Amino acid sequence: MWTALPGRELVAQSLELAGGIDWTTASVDPVRTLLAITALITPLAVLFIGWKASRTHLITLGWLVVLLGLANLAVGIIQVLSNGATGLFYPENPMPGILFGTFANRNTTGLFLVGCLAFAAMLPSPPQAGQAALPARVIICILLLVAVLLTRSRTALVLAALPLAGLFFQVIGQRLSTGHRRHRANGNRKWAAIATGALTLGAVASVGLMAPGRIGEVVDRFQNDRTDARAYIWEDASYAASRYWPVGSGTGTFDDVFQTDESLENITQRRAGRAHNDYLEVAIEAGAPGLLLIAAWLVLLAWLSWKARIREGRWIAWSGSITLLAIALQSITDYPLRNQSMLAVAAFALVILVRFALLQREAEP
Fold first, then answer.
1. How many whole angstroms separate alpha carbon 312 and alpha carbon 349?
2. What would the pLDDT profile of 290-332 be if each residue is shown by its tens digit?
3. Cβ-contact 310, 53 below 8 angstroms
4. Largest CA distance in the chain
């Protein structure tokens, strides 16, 4: 039966040359598919642990993720100031002056920092922070924004607007809901606003001093990069998807099957490795069932986000929604969920969304 599936002609010919056709899997490379299955261990572990953890502990873990983002910034500052000569975890991919942190792909670094920014902007402050909670939150958010800028990732820079928009609507919503009590704390809020504004201006000035020209360089990447090789990869990947449609070639097999369909005029000295569009890559590997599964996930996440609107912890839940939305959007031009760290972050964001969207009350230990 497998020989009748689309795109299996080369496999059948190879097996005939090797001694004859026999039983085999629907995937053209079952070892690659088995390896892809093992990638689920990390996110499943996060989901199982997060489902049993209390919501108070989940908020604490969210701030731990924020601290990991700041740790990446600390490592990245060394990388940027040394022009890539020091602190790189993956020196085989040299890009002088770029913040990678602990990642090999700066787009993934930027996306991780966007997720950290969503948690930093929308999670409740730790009770131990007291009066320092607001200025600390402002400083952390600005530092994370600086880190996103230093990655020079265009997608991350655009996606950073999502948590900032979430923070804006959160502040507006809180002001509207507490308007009848505003006169009680008007003075305190005025001083808090002044302090926040002063900290913001100081941080922006610091960015200008520490990284002159960085903003212009990122803008130039938007305007001048007209030879993006991804467009050529997408052209050949679309043809590969049609070859194996609607069954797919098997999860994890893209790098092998793409070599067959890569056109001669698009071949370079480097291998594509990925489709740089996860939806297109899923279409090649998993066909129609894979795309239907993605659509079902998106519908589920939208439903959970909508349901969270009536919950007390809706802004906490929406921090997870924003992180997952950023991942879904970056997947159009990259492959964030092919990274184990981002799989763990996505699983944690899903836990946050589910736990705070579905449960109205919870008895904390």
1. 18
2. 999 999 999 999 999 999 988 888 899 999 999 999 999 999 9
3. no
4. 85
Classify residue 136 by burial, with Cβ atoms within 10 Å: 0-12, 13-18, 19+: middle
pLDDT one-digit tens code per residue, 117-145 = 999 999 998 877 777 888 888 899 999 99
Picking from 21, 33, 28, 23, the residue whose alpha carbon sits closest to that of residue 7 is: 28
Q: Specify the 3-state DSSP secondary structure of 32.
A: helix
What's residue 20's pLDDT? 75
Phi-psi region of 237 (alpha: psi -120 to 50; beta: other; left: phi over 0): alpha
Tokens of 365: 């230990």
Distance CA 312, CA 324 (A): 20
CA angle 46, 291, 358 (to 5 degrees): 40
Lookup: tokens for 182: 């505003």
- Token pair belonging to 137: 């939150």
Q: For 335-348, what is each residue's pLDDT tens digit? A: 999 999 999 999 99
Spatial separation of the C-alpha atoms in residues 355 and 117, rounded to whole Å:
20
Query: What does the alpha-carbon distance between residue 233 and residue 277 come to, in Å, rounded to a whole number?
Result: 9
pLDDT over threshold 80, residue 188: no
User: Helices H, strands E: what count in the chain?
Assistant: 15, 0
For 221-307, list the strands marked E by DSSP: none
What CA–CA distances, in Å, run from 236 to 34, 230, 260, 269, 295? 25, 10, 10, 16, 24
d(CA 339, CA 258): 20
Mean pLDDT of the chain: 84
Taking CA atoms, 20 is separated from 17, 102, 145, in Å, by 7, 47, 58
Task: Tell me the residue type at 19.
Answer: G
Buried b (16+ CB within 10 A) or exposed e, 63-96: bebbebbbebbebbbebbeeebeebbeeeeeeee
Q: Are 285 and 252 in contact (CB under 8 A)?
A: yes
Q: How far apart are CA 320 and CA 335, in angstroms?
A: 19
Predicted TM-score of the model (pTM): 0.85
